[in-house]
Amino acid sequence: AEFGGNEHHQNEVINYMRFARSKRLLRLKTVDSCFEELKDSLVEETFTADEVRDMLDGLHAVVRGEVEMELINTAHTNVLLLRQLFFQAEKYYLRLQTDISELENELLEQVAEFEKTDFKVSDKMNQDASKPKLAPLNEAGVSELLNKEIAKLQEENENLKAKLRTLESQLEDTVAALKEDYERSLTVSAASQKDLQENLVSAKHELLRVQEQLAMAEKELDKKFQQTAAYRNMKEILAKKNEQIKEIRKRLQ
Questions:
Q1: Domain map (residue ranges) of the chain
Q2: What is the pLDDT of residues 18-71, one digit of tens each?
Q3: Residue 237 CB neighbours (<10 A)
Q4: C-alpha neighbours within 13 Å on the C-beta side of residue 21
């Protein structure tokens, strides 16, 4: 297998990487919105150095909170993933072993390349034969159970791949429509270009929605961006800051 395991395990890795990527995109969208919200709040033509510093401090606090939350969620998600694997291994009397040293070596670069090339890497990613292998503590009856489980997982995997192909086809159609709208916007007059750009933004939002549906179909993601606490906190900070600026200017006058 290209990733160093059988087809089923490779597909499991791909599914997890897609899940992690979708979570990462949602968090980045939240960070982007924080900056856009700050830009939209800049209604005055000039600001003092203290005013700019206060606004940047508020933005820094929100963005730092988002990054910290993402790192915490990633760590906790990995713990839950390991928990699933350990429970499955114990069901078949297996003991899994982990090597923390492999989490910070050149394999990370290969994983990144694997993601950039649609999860395709060279045979260099194959596991070292010297690594300890999983061994059953009691082999009596385990082979038959494993064969049944493998057949079941293979069937589920085929169903999942068919569903993913359907969703990816819909995604490709959305991207093609988005590209067509963008190219058309380059040829229209300046007066109508603004409307076409708004349609482009709407199409991009639809693309993000389809991507989110893909991730939810795999891992049942249900978190919505507009409901994040960071978004509401940022609006409150900016609203208070604008009121303070108006009050100071009024007192100066």
A1: 1-137+226-253, 139-222
A2: 888 888 888 888 888 888 888 887 776 777 888 888 888 888 888 888 888 888
A3: 21
A4: 18
